[in-house]
Design brief:
By secondary structure, this protein is of the alpha+beta class. The protein is built from six helices and ten strands, in the order αβααβββββαααββββ.
């Protein structure tokens, strides 16, 4: 059996040092579409090292680049075909602002393994701590097609009720044709996002955009519009990856204000708002 849930859950967490520089942050920001217009003072917060603010979603690539989707597949008890792998969801908790450069200790392990029948879901948890204490906690939910059916725990399945009323803000964000090629330079080298032949084997007409790229684009939109451009206000950011995005498409980002939260839904404009991100919540101060 490709998934040995007991072995995966019993495995010792992996601990190692990670580090990042301002260059890594700048590259990540460019990969999620920052810098347009290039001389806009609001964009220079993301693209100029002398005034650099770190978008919290940078935590998904800091130090290692492989945000659980790839690194989690090398843990004990996990042996799967990369073409069957999808990123199902992401939960990020920010304990304090991420510095523009730094060194920290990352501890990663499988927090849960769920049997969804026709698929398995792994939850890879990474805790990152710096000299002054915890920085962030990252949960990557990895969806493995065709790997379920062993009779294990199905795990949580509750979905959020759709937001009520009209959204407070609606933005459209066009994606570059080379968006995935640029974003993958931050470290997620899955060929699904670059190689047309690999994408066809995985069941797609062409390479798809990284879910975490859409995740970053969406958080930037929320910060820039409803949080006054203040990246330090973000406390947590949760999403479910509900559908694929193709480079060159346009994202429609709808936002609803709440008490200490922003609810978000993202769709692909050219495909009649086909869902891309769902059950998405930004918690903030």
């Amino acid at each position: 059996m490709p998934i040995d849930a007991a072995k995966a859950l019993a495995a010792e967490p992996r601990t190692g040092e990670i580090s990042w520089t301002a260059k890594d942050v700048l590259l990540y920001h460019l990969g999620i579409g920052a810098g347009l217009p290039a001389t806009d003072p609001d964009e220079l917060r993301y693209t100029l090292e002398s005034r650099l603010h770190v978008l919290p979603s940078f935590a998904t690539v800091a130090g290692s680049g492989a945000p659980g989707v790839i690194s989690g597949l090398s843990l004990p008890g996990i042996e799967v075909d990369l073409a069957r792998v999808l990123h199902g969801g992401q939960i990020l908790k920010i304990h304090r602002p991420i510095p523009a450069q730094g060194t920290a200790t990352a501890t990663s392990g499988i927090a849960a393994v769920y049997d969804k029948g026709k698929a398995a879901v792994l939850v890879l948890r990474t805790e990152v701590t710096g000299d002054d204490g915890p920085l962030w906690t990252n949960d990557s939910q990895i969806f493995l097609r065709g790997e379920g059916g062993w009779g294990g725990d199905r795990g949580p399945s509750a979905r959020l009720e759709p937001p009520a009323g009209a959204p407070d803000r609606v933005l459209e964000r066009p994606l570059r044709e080379d968006q995935a090629l640029l974003y993958r330079l931050s470290g997620d080298w899955n060929p699904l996002h670059a190689d047309p032949e690999f994408a066809k084997v995985a069941g797609y007409d062409r390479p798809i955009l990284h879910g975490l790229c859409t995740y970053g684009i969406t958080l930037k939109a929320v910060v820039d519009t409803l949080l006054g451009g203040d990246v330090t206000r973000v406390r947590a950011y949760t999403t479910r990856f509900a559908g694929v995005v193709y480079p060159g498409e346009t994202l429609r980002i709808r936002m609803w204000r709440g008490e200490g939260t922003v609810r978000v839904a993202v769709g692909a404009v050219e495909r009649d708002d086909a869902p891309v991100l769902a059950d998405t919540v930004v918690e903030h101060t």
